[in-house]
Amino acid sequence: MMKMCELTLESYYWTEDKLECPYELLVLLKEQANMGYFHKQLNNYCLYSLSHLMYDKKRVSEVIYDAVVFQSIIKIAYKIFQNLEEFKKRNLCKHQVSEKRLREQKFLDKKEIENPYIVFENIFKKYSLEKVSKSFLYLILATMADDTYGKDFDCSVSVLDYHKLLEACELIQQRCLTSER
């Protein structure tokens, strides 16, 4: 059973570099940050980064909030990636994946569903944490730009990788919550 410490969802914890337990924060984020919402927002950001229009100005605070939470999700994934032994110890690999589960997942293949650590490994061996974070922030800046010059940005990390990261985090959330029961 996972011991939960007293954490609140203040931005201090979201950006803290010395986060002690990424799994606890990921479970807490389930309440605040539904991964389905971030999949949708990521798609919106991509569409607006390609459009000559700026993302709705009335929603700037929402975009900033989303960016902070999304950056936290990236950091959580990186912290999990850094400690394979802890991941194994938590028994978060599920070897039996049902056909229903396979159909529910949009971005992960069967091996990644069985072992979401593979997703983090593939992303963070290909890109540094800084590159993953900056690439997302460049996408946000392009989303908020209201001219063609501002829409020109270098997104070196695939949007598919961000979707995979979100889906892997969601699987870990579900498995952590299931193991608590």
What does this structure look like?
The protein has 181 residues and is an all-alpha fold. It is 69% helix and 0% strand. It has helices at 11-15, 22-32, 35-50, 60-82, 84-89, 99-104, 110-114, 117-126, 129-144, 148-151, 159-180. The relative contact order is 0.18. Mean pLDDT is 77; it is low at 1-13.
Radius of gyration: 17 Å
Tally of helical runs:
11
Structural class: mainly alpha
Strand percentage, roughly? under 5%
Write down how many β-strands occur, each being a DSSP E stretch of 2 or more residues.
0
Mean of residue pLDDT values: 77
Distance from N terminus to C terminus (CA atoms, Å) equals 8 Å
Overall geometric form? globular
Q: Helix and strand string, N-terminal first?
A: HHHHHHHHHHH
* Parts with pLDDT < 50 across at least 5 consecutive residues: 1-13
- What proportion of the residues is helical, as a percent range? 55-70%
Largest sheet: none
Topology readout:
Elements: H1 11-15, H2 22-32, H3 35-50, H4 60-82, H5 84-89, H6 99-104, H7 110-114, H8 117-126, H9 129-144, H10 148-151, H11 159-180
Question: Short description, anyone?
Answer:
It is built from eleven helices and no strands.
Q: What brief labels describe this structure?
A:
181 residues, mainly alpha
